[in-house]
């Protein structure tokens, strides 16, 4: 089933509410769906074939659509690359912001953030690896925007560490390098992680959280915390 056919089929199932509002909401939803499907297929091709080895035609063929359909959402291949590269950090920032808005302790927030962000970069492994591999192919404005988001993530993590230290929850004083090392741990994770490897995803995520806590001089996770983080 092509992307156009898939979208039309889904639209027929939407009912109820004010017709005009529903139509507008549905249109935005379908536009997002189409755009995301382009990004998904492009991500796979960029990861497997490289940016230089992937054409707009190849992306269109994967989606069973025409090249003009792709161009109706992205002005060129460079714009698609930017969208792919931005996916991981955008989702990581959303998770971090959500965690920071909770009422938990600073330690709880940090543990949840590292676990959930680690989970995202594993799921978005192809996006992150593509970014690290193809960063020089990005338009300067796109590269600067994505870098700014990465800096924002590190800044928010640093502030979390700072606030947690001031509250007496972490053992060591705040240092700017702590956030950088933690950010590095997260960024490097999708480069070497393999679903077919000896370590399960949960094993790797526990290792990430443990390493993050150790970097800031915090105590190791308790069994209760481990159970809480996995929902057991």
UniProtKB/TrEMBL annotation:
GO molecular function: DNA-binding transcription factor activity; transcription cis-regulatory region binding
Annotated spans, Disordered: 1-21
Pfam families xrefs: TetR_C_24, TetR_N
InterPro entries for this protein: DNA-bd_HTH_TetR-type_CS (IPR023772), Homeodomain-like_sf (IPR009057), HTH-type_TetR-like_transc_reg (IPR050109), HTH_TetR (IPR001647), KstR2_TetR_C (IPR041490), Tet_transcr_reg_TetR-rel_C_sf (IPR036271)
Keywords, in A-Z order: DNA-binding, Repressor, Transcription, Transcription regulation
DNA-binding region: 55-74
Residues covered by the HTH tetR-type domain: 32-92
SUPFAM superfamilies, sorted: Homeodomain-like, Tetracyclin repressor-like, C-terminal domain
Domain of life: Bacteria
PROSITE patterns named in the record: HTH_TETR_1, HTH_TETR_2
Record PANTHER family: HTH-TYPE TRANSCRIPTIONAL REGULATOR RUTR (PTHR30055), HTH-TYPE TRANSCRIPTIONAL REPRESSOR KSTR2 (PTHR30055:SF175)
Protein name as catalogued: HTH tetR-type domain-containing protein
């Amino acid at each position: 089933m092509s992307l156009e056919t898939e979208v039309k089929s889904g639209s027929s199932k939407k009912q109820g509410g004010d017709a005009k509002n529903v139509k507008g909401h549905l249109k935005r939803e379908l536009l997002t769906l189409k755009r995301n499907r382009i990004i998904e297929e492009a991500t796979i091709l960029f990861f497997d074939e490289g940016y230089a080895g992937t054409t707009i035609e190849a992306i269109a063929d994967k989606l069973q659509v025409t090249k003009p359909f792709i161009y109706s959402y992205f002005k060129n291949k460079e714009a698609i690359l930017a969208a792919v590269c931005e996916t991981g950090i955008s989702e990581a920032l959303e998770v971090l912001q959500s965690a920071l808005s909770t009422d938990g302790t600073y330690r709880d927030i940090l543990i949840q953030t590292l676990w959930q962000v680690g989970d995202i970069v594993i799921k978005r492994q192809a996006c992150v690896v593509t970014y690290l591999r193809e960063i020089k192919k990005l338009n300067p404005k796109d590269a600067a925007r994505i870098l700014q988001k990465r800096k924002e993530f590190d800044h928010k993590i640093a502030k979390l560490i700072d606030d947690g230290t001031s509250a007496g929850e972490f053992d060591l004083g705040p240092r700017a390098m702590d956030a950088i090392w933690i950010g590095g741990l997260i960024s490097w994770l999708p480069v070497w992680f393999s679903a077919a490897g000896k370590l399960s995803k949960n094993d790797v995520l526990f290792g990430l959280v443990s390493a993050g806590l150790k970097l800031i001089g915090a105590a190791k996770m308790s069994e209760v915390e481990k159970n809480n983080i996995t929902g057991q």
